[in-house]
Amino acid sequence: MNISDKFNFRTIYWDDDKAVIIEQTKLPLAEEYLEITDYRVMNDAIKRLAIRGAPAIGIAGIFAAALAAKEYESLPADKFRIKMNEALDNIASIRPTAVNLAWGIEKTRSVLNEVIPKGNSAVFSALKRLGQEVLDEDIAMCRSIGRHGAELLPDECSVITHCNAGGLATGGYGTALGVFFTAHEMGKKIHVYADETRPLLQGARLTTWELMRAGIDVTLICDNMAAHLMKTRKIDCCVTGADRIAANGDAANKIGTYSLAVAAEHHDIPFYVAAPYSTLDKNTPSGDEIPIEEREPEEVTEGFGRRTAPQGVRVWSPAFDVTPCRLIAGIITEKGVFRYPYDFRNYT
Ligand code: MRU
After folding, report:
1. In order of start, what are the domains of the chain with their CATH numbers?
2. Ligand 1 atom showing the smallest separation from residue 320 Cα
3. Distances (CA, A) of 310 to 200, 256, 306, 307, 313
4. Quick check: 5 pLDDT over 60?
5. Can you tell me the mean pLDDT for 217-235?
6. CA distances, 340 to each of 248, 260, 285, 329 (Å)
7. pLDDT higher than 60, residue 1
8. How far is the centre of ligand 1, averaged over its atoms, from the C-alpha of 57 (Å)?
9. C-alpha closest to that of 91 among 38, 165, 147
10. 55 lines ligand 1 (CB under 6 A)
11. Among all residues, which ones are annotated catalytic?
12. Strand, coil or helix: what is 196?
């Protein structure tokens, strides 16, 4: 049983000839599932964060590719290949920061090249299988990250996390939240402070929802309260996820993660990043080369369902930032905990 079965939700799965996702933009007010048969609808779901989180969009991208293969199944082989490549280029470009989407599409391209000689319907079956394999592997990796990370936590502790790196952001267990779930399962007494995570409130809407379902003590704070919290209450560590980790250990994650790491360093609180090994991108030497997605101004000016700033105001909305490696006390992966200085240039 994985934790999402235990909590009675599923982030993403394949059912017969369709992909199904939990509609995250509706959480926590409504728990709705979206059945997707058209890859363009999956692309849109990724773009508007109905499915989100680096590992989850990697899986969604592969399922989108499977849907494209189904749609183009009856085309002659040469046209099939052209249409599939167009679809894969589209999917890969939706969200540039998380390496997992590009990684999933690269895996898809290899399967495509290998299986095309067996016929178009074989490609559809192979891509469905690939999506399921990546999903299953992800849950296993997150379990292992959870075990390595939980060992770092004292038996009784208070921690801070940012954004949502839980079951909703992965195949169903979570990276940073996986550490907390495992610690809780081990009987550790853990209290999590969840940053609300402006502008789209993944912390307020999703992290609190997951932790409360798991029976973990959680307190919601606004992002700008974290430094004051560190100064006035005992915080043992910070744990966040990552969207891409460069070869030198610089880690991109949801905007606001960097400020949290700076505040943690100032207060001498260890700052950990939890991520599967597949989030390490040895081809990106440092954080300076990580592409940062920028989002629409309305997410900032109308994020609460009504306008909160004057019409016409200029807005800048980077969705991610990069935490420099020297601020990261450890990178928790399924293979163990890496310590600064990091060098992932030759990892396999
Ligand atoms: O824009 P989002 O909601 O997709 O951003 C998600 C994050 O930043 C997560 O922390 C990250 O993807 C790690 S998820 C295990």
Report:
1. 3-142 (1.20.120.420), 151-338 (3.40.50.10470)
2. 8
3. 19, 24, 11, 8, 6
4. no
5. 98
6. 9, 18, 15, 6
7. no
8. 9
9. 38
10. yes
11. 243
12. coil
